[in-house]
């Protein structure tokens, strides 16, 4: 577990996801830790020197550089043009995780019992059937092994587009001068991405509690995955029986698996949102160009003026700005994360609230953990995608109000199709969305799929009528 335990950091509170810190992409470099061709440069970034993901300073950079250069000759020859060298990713991650104890049989049995009880209680709180077919106990290395394929899908399009954007932003003359060096720089960039991703995944693996506690569909094992060593350490920290924490964590993992297993489009829609966002990435060097235009070359012979110009440039943010033309994909991902985590929170609270003595304390602990390191922080460390904090509290409130208004069956029926889900604006004004669900059909036979099919049929018929020549019946 982390030094603060359970991912807590001083000053964190439960209102983080209520605050709009105005981050976004404008005026920032969410990939500041990668810089030009993936190398750390001006400005701190997640996972880079000076960023939350690293130790900071020259020592951290030299350490990363040393790891990257280790075995470079063989790696250079083995590169296949991939945007990220995942052999480096896995090696660095395993080195940083170190030796971990295997999961004991007694722990597996305890997790199986916890999952069985959690699934029984969840059946009363949701109409979505069980998605996990077994409980699995993992250690940090097993978490890495089982989630790495999904991380590859998430990171590769971002790294590939970043490399292309770096080259595209260079002047034509510079590209011609570099010539064959571009290939070597691309391979070094791939290795550096591998180093930084490996470090980020190692940190996540050492803090993970379940296979889905980030809210992302990171594994496809079909199991409810839990990390008993980390859960036991947390139980000691919270001064609660380990069995209660096992049941609570199993319920959250099982609720996630019900969604991702029984809503087949959900996981793919999340991953495709990352891919779509990455496809629109562009690199803006206008800050550097503006600084260069502001230099008076004739005055550079005056040491005093030269020193003045250098001091002025030190106070400027010269790191390239990263933006995406596909901001709607980022908004969609933020909203999906909020809806998933909000739904899981509501379902688990309803299932365990009156049955598990420590449920309220555990729910509060989970919210604090999420506030200090949720899915958006994981994505930031692993890919540099700078999401705003998902509005999980607002999403949970929407699901609770919807449950009260239409019941569990119709609430869960909203997951039948992506077009039925609330959009970002609905999280700030849930009343309008709930009124829409209430007004869709007053009967208990409401079928959202049938409603959508009827709407598409009516639109097709109207289109056929418009296409008919004048005078025809």
UniProtKB/TrEMBL annotation:
Composition bias, Basic and acidic residues: 454-473
Compositional bias per record (Gly residues), positions renumbered to this chain: 30-59
UniProt xrefs under Pfam families: Zincin_2 (PF10103)
Transmembrane segments: none
Location of region: Disordered: 1-59, 438-473
GO molecular function, a single term: hydrolase activity
Classification via InterPro entries: Zinicin_2 (IPR018766), Zinicin_2_N (IPR042271)
Compositional bias ranges of the Acidic residues kind: 442-453
Keywords: Hydrolase
PANTHER family, sorted: HYDROLASE, PTHR39420
Name of the protein this chain belongs to: Hydrolase
Species annotation: Corynebacterium freneyi DNF00450
């Amino acid at each position: 577990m982390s030094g603060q335990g359970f991912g807590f950091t001083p000053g964190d509170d439960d209102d983080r996801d209520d605050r709009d810190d105005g981050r976004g992409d404008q005026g920032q470099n969410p990939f500041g830790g990668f810089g030009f061709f993936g190398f750390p440069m001006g400005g701190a970034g997640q996972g880079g020197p000076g960023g939350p993901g690293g130790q900071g300073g020259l020592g951290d950079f030299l350490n990363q550089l040393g790891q990257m250069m280790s075995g470079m000759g063989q790696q250079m020859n083995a590169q296949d043009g991939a945007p990220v060298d995942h052999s480096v990713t896995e090696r660095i991650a395993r080195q940083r995780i170190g030796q971990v104890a295997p999961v004991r049989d007694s722990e597996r049995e305890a997790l199986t019992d916890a999952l069985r009880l959690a699934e029984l209680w969840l059946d009363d709180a949701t109409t979505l059937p069980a998605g996990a077919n077994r409980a699995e106990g993992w250690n940090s290395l097993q978490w890495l092994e089982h989630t790495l394929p999904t991380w590859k899908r998430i990171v590769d399009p971002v790294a590939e587009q970043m490399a292309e954007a770096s080259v595209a932003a260079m002047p034509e003359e510079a590209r011609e001068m570099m010539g064959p060096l571009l290939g070597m720089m691309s391979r070094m960039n791939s290795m550096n991405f591998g180093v930084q991703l490996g470090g980020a995944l190692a940190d996540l693996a050492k803090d993970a509690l379940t296979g889905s506690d980030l809210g992302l569909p990171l594994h496809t094992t079909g199991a409810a995955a839990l990390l008993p060593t980390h859960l036991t350490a947390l139980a000691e920290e919270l001064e609660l029986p380990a069995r209660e924490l096992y049941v609570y964590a199993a319920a959250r993992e099982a609720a996630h698996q019900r969604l991702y297993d029984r809503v087949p489009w959900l996981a793919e829609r999340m991953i495709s949102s990352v891919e779509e966002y990455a496809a629109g990435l562009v690199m803006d060097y206008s800050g550097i160009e503006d600084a260069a235009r502001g230099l008076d070359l004739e005055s550079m012979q005056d040491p005093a003026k030269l020193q003045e110009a250098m001091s002025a440039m030190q106070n400027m943010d010269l790191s390239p700005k990263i933006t995406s033309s596909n901001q709607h994909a980022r908004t969609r991902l933020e909203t999906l994360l909020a809806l998933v985590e909000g739904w899981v929170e509501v379902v688990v609270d309803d299932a365990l609230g009156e049955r598990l003595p420590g449920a309220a304390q555990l729910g509060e602990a989970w919210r604090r953990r999420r506030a200090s390191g949720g899915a958006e922080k994981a994505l930031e460390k692993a890919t540099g995608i700078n999401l705003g904090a998902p509005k999980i509290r607002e999403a949970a409130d929407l699901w609770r109000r919807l449950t009260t208004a239409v019941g569990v069956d119709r609430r869960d029926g909203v997951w039948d199709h992506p077009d039925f889900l609330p959009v970002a604006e609905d999280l700030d004004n849930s009343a309008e969305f709930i009124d829409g669900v209430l007004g869709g059909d007053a009967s208990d036979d409401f079928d959202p799929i049938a409603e959508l099919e009827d709407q598409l049929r009516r639109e097709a018929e109207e289109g056929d009528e418009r296409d008919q020549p004048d005078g025809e019946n």
